Records
---
Amino acid sequence: MRLITVSGPPSSGKTAVICRVIEALRQQAVKVGVVKFDCLSTEDDERYKSMGVLVRKGLSGALCPDHFFVSNIEACFHWGLDEGIDILISESAGLCNRCSPHIKDVMSVCVIDNLSGQNTPKKIGPMLKSADIVVITKGDIVSQAEREVFSFRVKNVNPRSTTMHVNGLTGQGAEELARLFAESSDVGGLGERQLRFAMPTALCSYCLGEKRIGEEYQKGNIRKMDI
Amino acid sequence: MDINEIKIVSGTDKNGNSESVEELTIRKGDILVLAGPTGSGKSLLLSDIEQLANGDSPSGRRVLVDNKVMDPFSMRITACLSQNMHFVMDLDVGSFIGLHAKSRKIETNNTVEKVLKQANDLAGEPLSADMHLASLSGGQSRALMISDAALISNAPVVLIDEIENAGINKTMGIQLLSTEGKMVLIATHDPTLMLTAQKRIIMKNGAMFRLIQSDDVERKHLKYFLEIDRVLEGFRHSLRHGNRLDEETLKRLVELEGANHEQ
Ligand SMILES: Nc1nc2c(ncn2[C@@H]2O[C@H](COP(=O)(O)OP(=O)(O)O)[C@@H](O)[C@H]2O)c(=O)[nH]1
Ligand SMILES: [Mg+2]
């Protein structure tokens, strides 16, 4: 089974792009499944279901979504194998920009949109920096010059990525992306594989439910600003 | 980048029927107009060419460059002006032009000044390097887009979508973009612009419906269209500056009509 991790800021067009790619893959009779990771709620699973796609969703609730991802992805992988899926796609919103769900030697995609601001590629960190493919959406809304400046900014942050433009509404460019998905290497299993980027070191009193503000309540891994 | 022709192998209309124009070849130096009602598929045809569609767009068209399928990301052969009237990027005008030039590997040092000067020649209201890109008016934005497309994107194929709505000098804009040896495609509703091209494609229901070759009789109309444009432009200018119409202006119009009847 192939596994593709797709991440990107909220509303950048991840679900739209994945749906267009699934449409393209279906013409080649490839069986696709999706696992959607989110924090509090998502309706994306309904969007996939309405297309007749096998889908599982995981809500991290009070936990860090990327920690939640890494502790669950292996079970999702087994689910995919049991269902006879050819390509399993994970969708997760990059919420704090500090993490990335990308796994070594597993194809990784970052979806980012042309409207998100020219400094965004620099801001979103490992999610984009460690991705194999960067998909840029919403090109229909901006000028050619803006598209070019934006992909130039992306290239500066991640020079070794394949950068491509996909329109999440019309599907323009999705066929090419589908081809890359289908050509990615088979992932035998996830046991012993490694994340591309270490998760934040963040165990402090607030991780454990502390709500009060004040020096005496700050325990564990705390860092102070230089003011 | 030197290319000689672009071939569009047709696809289907919005209902999946084959297009009546089966194949369309555009050669170096050609100016081609796309005409047809709003929603008839002009913008999609332009975007098929921009993206060098290979059966992967809603129309199913294929675009061949010198008879070959090309990867649109590995080479930039088009400069295009879409219907977008505004920029959204969070940059000032000067940095934007500079970055765009850099992304195109243009190293000359006065690029920003040149692009700005050209944009100012086109725009009704002046624009400067320190202005915020997203706050430019429609006219300023389009003037900058045109100047940028001509001087920075400077590509063998130029795609223009409804330049007449831009509030800028449209003839000057087209002249700037369609320098010698380029292939120019213009989607337009403007009769004068339609007749400036030798050929026009009529779009209907998402498809290339008919290819019309312009002839001498059509060309003879152009002179009158230009005259009517000039007269209307004079009235537009006058009314915008607070003048009233009177017996005198009416008489001039009547005379003009008479003169046209006699010819
Ligand atoms: N104009 C335009 N809108 C898009 C494009 N891709 C996605 N959208 C819209 O952007 C919004 C967010 O897309 P969605 O796929 O839900 O984003 P996600 O949160 O990253 O999964 C939706 O309203 C989409 O219809 C695109 O290429 N062009
Ligand atoms: Mg989504």
---
Amino acid sequence: MPQDVLFQLKGVSKCFVKGKEKITIFEDLDLTINRGDFIAIMGPSGSGKTTLLNMLGGVDQPSAGEIWFDGARVDNLSEGALTRWRARNIGFIFQFYNLMPMLNAARNVELPLLLTKLSRAQRKKHVETALALVGLSDRAKHMPGEMSGGQQQRVAIARAIVSDPQLLLCDEPTGDLDRTTADEVLEMLQLLNREHGKTIVMVTHDPAAAKYAKQTLHLDKGKFVQRELVA
Amino acid sequence: MGSLFSQIVTVTAMNIRSLPRRLWMSLAMVLASAVVVAVLLAFLAMAKGFEATMEGAGSDRVAILMREGAAAELNSVLTREQVNLVAESAGIARDAQGPLISPELYVIVDGIKKASGTEANIPLRGLNAKGMAMRENMHLLEGRMFTPGTNEMIVGAGVLREFDGFEIGKEVRFGKNVWTVVGIFSTGGNVFESELWADAAMVQAHYNRGSSYQTIRVQLQTPGDLAPLRETIEREPRLNLDIQTERDYFANQGEQLRYMAIFGRVISFVMALGALAGALNTMYTSVADRAKEIATLRALGFGNFSAFCGTVAEALVLAAAGGLLGSLAAFLFFDGLSTSTLGGSFTQVVFSFEVSPDLFMQGAALALFIGFVSGFFPAWRAARVPVVVAFRNGA
Ligand SMILES: Nc1ncnc2c1ncn2[C@@H]1O[C@H](COP(=O)(O)OP(=O)(O)O)[C@@H](O)[C@H]1O
Ligand SMILES: [Mg+2]
């Protein structure tokens, strides 16, 4: 059956210049992500997982190569255009949640909606829906500091999905959580992938976490060394 | 784009709410701008009060005549004969008793200042009833006029405020002479309130002046018109006198003190530079402290303009709070504060600080200047925080 291509990396290289030294992280990397995928990216620390995710999210630029999204090139967009593209299409989930400590859960979830033309009432509705989806309706008024790590990450997930982006990019989303809480968060991602059609790319070094994905890519020394499909 | 506004509002509100995290640095910035604004206002209020004191004293309807080259009343000497010659000149207003002319003496006596307990100079002016009438707003606050031919004097309200021992009924000793205070007068807050007034003939007698005087004041027939008197002086070789309106005289006397305002602005500008350095440090720290939040918002799709505006707004809020505090302090401590300074004629001029609304505007402008400049460059850095910072490990 013909796959619906969402994201494509074509011959992407990335290197950093540190002093006089040139560090190459990837060389000539190809990757295709289809709509509806749930991909786990694994690899040793320092193998470039975060860098790859940042390039997918338009946060970091490749040194060479092309990045295509939904049939259009995005790596050569201007900073402003890239920011707008990101706001429309990408939801980020971070290892340390990155909630705004001065805002309560509902206000945190509302942040991406401030970039849209929605009215205050519409925003409120969307926020309620997103918080209900992650099971935190009763915590809307709580500050991040008053919530557990797992709850904070669920608020972060609600924030990532509230503006209904197609792609969720997660960098070690369970890296700071205990096993049980991690499983709850991963089940939630699985649900978003299966029931809500979100395409998900998740970086992790935890094999148990990778099991929730539909396929796992192993990154080492700038190459994908192994590709596993989960039935 | 309507959402840009809500982005900026949200980011600004977040910055303000996160201030407690940087409590001491933020307070330091508020305090620094408060001090700078307070210093500026203190100097300006002093200059303004002094100016008002000097300006209020000078009338266009009165001319003052002194010996040629005597820049101040203290240095002038005039003979009885010269007084008589001037009295006959055209251009002087008259009443039923003749020309309105006041030959005056001006000597220096010592008083003890209440505030410091130290000696300071006070002018003792000998004059007549016509001279007193020439001071437009002159009125007695308490007691009565001195009786000519006696050792009685009346005391300016400023002298009473600043110096010890000039209350009504008190006997005051200057050298061998003892004077009795019989009245307190006001001239509406101007420089004459810093003087002691007594009968001209008694001052002549006690200070061995014979029949000589120091200055002549005349009421002009036409305000500001010195021409007829000038003509008399030029025609008469015995009248080697300088003439100017009283307004010009005091304007000149006040001139050097007007540098106070300039000096104050220079001082507070230099201090503002110091405060600016501290404020810049505070704001750079704020940006570093918020870097992860800024980057996260950028990852969510917020523009860098909101990070810029939020930072400038934070700096403006802090500096404005300082400006408000400084203005309030200046108003509470300085407004109406009475003080005295060495006047142009080496005597104490008593005047009040005046913290007026236009000074507040200048203070506010300075505070906003500090806020804007100290916010601008850190805001530039905030706008350039790389988004990848959001993904760096460590909370
Ligand atoms: N801005 C940068 N400048 C220089 N080197 C960098 C930069 N960002 C990442 N690196 C290097 O790139 C490599 C990959 O980093 P990263 O993508 O964070 O790895 P991972 O997430 O797999 O641990 C590391 O060796 C890191 O030191
Ligand atoms: Mg990483």
---
Amino acid sequence: MRIRAWYAGAIALAAGMVAATAAVGQDAASTAQEIEKYRQALQDGNPAELWEARGEGLWKKPAGPKNASLEKCDLGLGPGVVKGAYAQLPRYFADVDRVMDLETRLAHCRVTLHGLTPAQATARPFGSPDNRSDNDALVAWVTSESKGATMNVPSAHAKEKEAFALGEKIFYFRGGPYDFSCATCHAADNTRIRLQDLPNLTKQAGAQLAYTTWPAYRVSQGELRTFQWRLNDCFRQQRFPELGFASDASIALTAFLARNANGAEFKAPTIKR
Amino acid sequence: MADPMRIRAAVDAGGVTEVKVLMSHEMETGQRRDAAGALVPAWFIQNVTATHAGKTVLSAQWGPAIAKNPFLSFRFKGAQKGDKVQVTWVDNRGDKRTDEATIA
């Protein structure tokens, strides 16, 4: 019997070395191509699937003081409809008369269905190895159910327009010790910090590439990271105060970037370096 | 109790079954220090076995050099569509997990 085995560690190391050696003396475009090869080598066994599986379990399992599951949660396409829902978020929800993104809506459902307090429902927005986040897992699962869907964030409602306009304002708002805005790092083509390409988020192609590839399993962290986490980390890079989880500012910025990605195919959860 | 593995298995026209396994495990090397400077104890999967129809088709000894949340892919001959393949791991704390998949 012939047995062949590859180990994740070996693949990661080998691919990393290819990227490093090939980059020597070559231009930025080929560096990006080599990083892309590294991502592809890892895509097959993407550990994000472990979060997706846990999230599906959390969605279906009765929990909280009301001992109910989240299966009746309305993510915008009707109670319990998960398929394609993320590709149409953030959106206006009439039952709460406000625009919500996925995290805010999940927190809302954990309050109304599980019976948690709002503080309990948002207590752990991002996980770490010894302290996992149910939010990460639920987001992984819900987003995976939009894989292949076309981004179609609605903008008919006045509050959706308002959120988009506020998000745009936040994107260009300069402040903090370095007088940075998001646009300082994300409004020019072909720029990078170290080896990381900085997407031009003011152009459709850049916004589409960025928005449709989160959440992602970060190999360097061994964790699944959500789009909210990405925004949070860029607030940190910008030396801004911490972005409030499920805050109006966070929803608005997400609405701005999500709608700029309209028309693109949603591809996440992906794997990133 | 560890999270379930994700196992996919499919047999091709030539009778070769390809199995892809994702395992949820921290795979601590024993080299890392925590925020307080204390060594984080080694904690990793030590043995992996895969069986089909009562026969071992893969047996591996692993160490701390394997990445967190490991992905394992291997091939073997002799299985049919609809058969089951079982995968078991045991870590250095004696914790263990077995999952199975139906070959597509």
